[in-house]
Predict the 3D structure of the following.
Amino acid sequence: MARRILFVTTDQQRYDALGCNGGRIARTPVVDRLAATGIRYERAVPQNVVCMPSRATMLTGQHVRNHGVWMNGVPLPADAPSVAGLLHDAGWRTGLFGKAHFEPFLDPFLRFPESRMGRHRQPNEDGRPHRGFDHMELAGHSGAGLVHYSGWLREHHPDHVASYYPPIDGTMDVNAAGGGETGAPQVGENPIPREAHHTEWVVDRALAWLDGMADADDWFCWVSFPDPHHPWDPPASEVGRVPWRDLDLPAGYPADREERERLLDAKAPHWRRWYDGDLVSNYEVPAKWVPATLTADQVREVDARTHVSNELIDEALGRLLSALDRRGWDDDLDVLFTTDHGEFQGDHGLLFKGPYHVDSLMRLPLVWRPAPSSGVAPAVVDGPVGLLDLAPTFCRIAGLDVPGWMDGAPLPASTGEWSQRKRPAVLTEWDSRHPSGAEVHLQTITTDGMVCTRYEPGTSHDGSEGEMWDLSADPLQRVNLWDDPARRSGRDDLLAELDALLPDRPAEPLRVEAPV
Amino acid sequence: MHRELVIGAPADEVWSVVAAPERQAEWFPGMVSSAVEGTTRTVVAAAGAFFLEEILAIDHDRRTFEYRITGPMVVHHHRGRISVLDDDAGSRVVYEQEIDPKALASVLDGAIGDALEGLRDLVLHGRTSRAWEPPASTGGGVGS
């Protein structure tokens, strides 16, 4: 009996993007059905809130300090272990379609294999698996770049290579140019036909690879949608699905400016500094955009466009699953759906992401639909789990021992199983050094009901700062309990637990080879 | 950015390669070509992008080569300098760059590290970099 794992990721997608998680805007019946017949996790937490470190964790099952990708632009070492490699060595066919980002995107000298493979439109290098994947066809967030999608677009839709919003401006900063009807940053009109958009291309290429599988083949297929990550430029033909003027403001957006600023002042100082335009701590944010200029209408327009992308992803996934069902493969197919980190999308008066460990970025959608043949009952798990638990889960599905180099543990299939975990808390780290010189370092522990963040000394912090949130009493994370004397003992317990989880820092951090 | 490497060959021998700006693509991995016309060098990178550079100075006495990137991307400031120094083990090559926009610094830093190793490979073993296309080549080079 063949076993099959379909691992589906989006990029920068919020927990509440999905209907099964309470989302009321995007229609996501495909993922909702997976959740209804599978296991839905209410508190899935990334080990880092930017792409490369989080994706390295998904591939290796390791904490950031152990795989070493501490910031975007740091490539995962060529000899890093990989769950895809384990599966490949056990005889599984392995493929990745869409965004990889284990190596930097900005690579004019083709120093990295992903760039070379993309530039030359090869599924691997010299016929050898890359990071354990027999076959890779890669995409990014636009029509340009060193990815297979760009080459495909140049060949089949040359008029649309330039249709996407340019993610980088002429000075090598992330583009801050406004667009749409509200002038929101990173919003653009994209005339590309839907069938040529990277969301559809990712599924097309995955299906082309899977068409070559025999019924007896064990396969692991990672389908990695680049959306709904900014730029917010879904195909123009689809934008009308969610009219922004019809949307209420998100619950997490404090519409009153004074209240918004008061809430930011209650957090660590870099929040307000960024909001005011005094600090840019990470390259992924448009350096020329000042969050204080964000208007309520811009929040709605970004929200609307994001949900258009969320719908398109769900429909594309439905197309993929229908095709697999027609092959008769569904009964032995495990499907896992998640994302690498979240997005502010208006919460706290902000957009994008950065060193801010709140639910906007830290509470992720995660659904596991076990193979129906396994007989696992549907469930909801409300305790925290990490993305580092994905790789061990793939091992368990494949009947492989979880290797000692993985830090995670297989995902629990029920809250009862969760409560049996040796370490029920989850760690998230951030370390950054921006080209401007700004340095930010923080670590966060998420337990059942609490999130506690400690800041180390940096250019905005002296090491005394922190945040602590009671998720039950304060789901919008507006009341910072860090300095509350009545919560001091609880805080100390959480920090002790954090220290127990935290691996040692590597003696020498890996080198940053590009800004992203 | 500052990278350096000791090469087990006399400094004059290493300098003879560095001082020929049209030869840089032979040893700089990821460069397809480095054509010189007057004081302008045009470098084509393996990904298809190109850099325009102005050759500022070639000092045979001090064995230093200086240049700057002038375009086509917006570059507020750039200086590159390669120095070949005597060393007990042969020669020590120092490759330094400053650049604004700073976002490009990490990209160039890694590349010049590879470049010094490529220089050593060429001087000691006669191996040219993988992307380099000899000027007489009619092949398409990298591309789809």
